[in-house]
Amino acid sequence: MEQILIQEEQKKKLGQIDSRSGNEYEYIIQIEQSGETSFNEIMVSYISGRWWRWKFWNVLQVALFLICIARTAVLSCQGECDETLTASDGIFTSPCYPNDYPPSQTCTWTLQAPAGFVLQLTFLDFELEEAQGCIYDSVIVNTGASSVKFCGLTANGLTLNSSTNVMVVSFHSDFSVQKKGFSISYRQVAVALRNQKVTVPQNFKDVVRVSSLVSIPALSQFTACFEITGQSQTGSGIIFSYTETEPHLTFGNSGNSMDLIIGNATCPVSDLVTLADFTSNMQLLCITWSNTNGAVAVYFKGSYRVKFCSNTVGMKLGTGGSFELGRGKKQGQNFDGLIYNFRLWSSAMTSSELATLTCDAVGNVVDWDNSFWDIPASYAQTDSSLSCSTAMPATTSQTTTCVSPGVGCPASLTTTTSSIVNTNTIPTNARTNGKQLSVPHFIMLAF
Ligand SMILES: [Ca+2]
User: For the whole prediction, is pTM greater than 0.70?
Assistant: First the structure.
């Protein structure tokens, strides 16, 4: 027979765990087997009754902690609520979208574009609690010239343009009734080509060219000025060309040397400028030609160099051709770099004229303006640091200088806040919830 003897004196006090919880004891239990003189010892723990109170207290704390964690997880979608967005395009949403936005939330997104650009935003999705005057939940868009307030479903699908390079979108929710909120896309829109530089296409199928709406006259002399940047390169690099049925004017390196090619006459100009002269710093380059004496001059980095190519005397460029950056006829021959502010005049400027030429001097044949160029959008890069970047117009109406579609011509700048008001025909989605039932609306705020 076996028996268990608990020897109180052998109990080992482990220590008081908590003043309110009691003590925990550990006992040595000796198992005495009859007929044997030895004892087997095992350890058991004994915990006094007050331990349960201690346990409850700690479980409660853990539970509260877990509740807190869960709430934090819910609130975490409020992150990045106040932001300044400077990317050229993007999307932002209300907190927790497409789930309901949190109650009592206030957010502000400041869309910031470089000088010379406006911002265009589109409500991809929009649903807020609806109320007369949007007094509960609202989105306010400050376009610069005015402020427009939205709630309900009214903003869904709308596009708004700023009148300056800053646009502020504010969101507010009250304590009750939440909806899924909104998703808004935005993009910076260059007002003028003067704010953009252009990559010379390396792809055969892509062409940056003067618009076919521009009639290029017969030229017996010309001046072409542009700013150019690119890594020093060897091999071929055609910078621009004028093509009728055949390339009739080409400037650049066609593989052997830097040449100005007019018709079938080649004028080597490597002694005036080479591709290696072009660096990552954008530099003005002008090249002039006159058929009276065959003078070819290059103005680059402030120095004017001229030579005479008699084989071009009497040549003439015909009308009706296509003027392009690069050559666009053969893969891999184009200059690998960026061109900005390309302008063409029908006369050969003198060195003093070139030295005093300003970036905003208008080319009388081709100017650096959207109305003169057909530029695939992916080849134009906005850059506020360009030499002739324009200041932001005071109102969007000034953007009507875009006479033909181009990368810098905003597609729908005529969408004004006043026209939006008239499109307000979306049915109500109001809920009562103890609040006043209302009709859909949005509100113009005057500053
Ligand atoms: Ca609400």
Answer: no
